[in-house]
Structure formats: C-alpha cells, structure tokens
Design goal:
This protein is α+β, with helices and mostly antiparallel strands. The protein is built from 7 helices and 15 strands. The protein starts with a helix and ends in a 6-residue tail after the last helix. The structure holds D-MYO-inositol-1-phosphate and calcium ion.
Amino acid sequence: MPNLLSLRDLALRTARSVAPELARWAGGSLDSATKSSVTDLVTDADLWSEKQIAEMLHGARPDDAIQCEEGTTVSGTSGVRWVVDPIDGTTNFVYGHPGYSVSIGAEVDGEPAIGVILDPVLGDEFVAALGHGATRNGTSIRVSNSTILSEALVATGFGYQPDRRHRQAEGLVEILPRVRDIRRMGGAALDLASVACGRVDAFFERGLAPWDIAAGTVIVREAGGRVCDLSGNSPTGDFVVAAPEGLLSELLSLLHSVDADRA
Ligand code: IPD
Ligand code: CA
C-alpha cells in the first residue's frame, strides 16, 4: 500500500504548480476549440495544465497510471491511478467567472483514495486522503447536518448535449419546488467540494466523467458525506449524487420519482 499522505502531498504540490498561472489567464484571450458540442470548450490553458500535471506526476511516480480529461493516458503497474481534470469548469474559466478548479484524484487498487481540488479564484485548497479526513486550507471540513430536503440547498449541473439539457430542465421543474433552492455553479469538482464543506447541502448530476468526480468523491466521503449512484451504490456510471447521510434517502427518492433519466 503506498503512503497515502505522500500521494496527497504530491497531488497538492502538483495542483499548486498550475493554479496561479490559470488565475492569470482566466477570462483572457485564449485559443479554444469545441469538443462534444459547440458549448463544450477546451482551451490552450486546459492543455498546458494537463501537460504540466501529467509530467509532474509521472516524473515523481513513473509506475503509476494517469488518466486526464484532455486525452493524456499513461499505463502503470503500481496500483495507483491518477485521475485529473486540468480545469474543471472550463466555461467559467473562459469567461473569467469564478467556479473553475484544478482537480487531481487518485485511486489505489481501484478505490478512490486521494482528492485535491484547488480554486484559484477564492484561493481554496480542498484536500483529502482516505482515512485521514478532509480539509479546506488546512482546517477540517464536514458536510452539513441537513436532514430535510425541502430545506436543502442543492447543486446540480447540465451536460453539453442539447437533448440531455432538455431532459435535465424537465427534471428541474419537479425538483425545484421541493428543495430550498438550486445552484448551478458550473464545475462539478467544486460542487462536490461545496458539499464537503457544507456550502451546499447536496449535489446531483447526470453525465459526469471520472475526472469530474475523482477528487471530489474522496473529499466528500472524508468530510462524512455519501457519494453514490441512484441506487445508493458507489458510482460506476455517469450519475452522481453527493449528500449527508441524513438527506440521502429523501434525495434519492425524489430523483427516482422525477424519472432518473430527466434528473
Ligand atoms: C464540466 C463541469 C460542469 C458539469 C459538466 C462537466 P468541464 O466539466 O464540471 O459543471 O456540469 O458536466 O463536464 O467540461 O468544465 O471540465
Ligand atoms: Ca475540464
């Protein structure tokens, strides 16, 4: 078993090596291209950040596997797999809007074990290692103690495909009247970090990829929350729910009742 604290510290050093530069570039004139749809952006900064992160992780631990959103993949033999989103919330980043982050997670033997999410705008560092708790800027964090869905602030996000967005909007028609309010902040990694520190009560989204949730999953769990799919199991597909234990069953029932495909 690798030393989780040294993996955590490597992830933090690596994220810190790119975050200040991203803050300088945000909202500037950057070359960008579209990916899965015209709303799905990738910029030169995403590619630069990914290259820096992958090189630093690979340089420090050449036997680890690496998977990054923009295509970098390295195979490994150590049992450690880094899962990286070099900029989560690229749309926010392009507009110079707060709500983007660098997200570096690691699994050990397939189990989420390390999470580091840096928010260059607020200067927040969310950090967790399995069994060692979760912190924000060095201070322990916990999910909220919310137990009543109608009084819960719930974050969500929307995919990039128009037909999925149509179904997500239909689902929100049912969900919005049943919660305190909805937040759509534009970055799933920070949405999960927000659940972990109680800045929102819960989060759900369909259509997420492993790099969107790898780090945040560990941070929420170490902050005492649950991260699961619609059945309450560890997410294996693209639907992710994060919530305090006391809110989870009511939230899952609501998501089922509005029709899982529309949520
Ligand atoms: C996206 C953000 C967004 C979420 C999308 C993600 P990206 O990641 O996390 O909040 O709604 O599902 O794809 O494209 O900015 O890395
Ligand atoms: Ca991204």
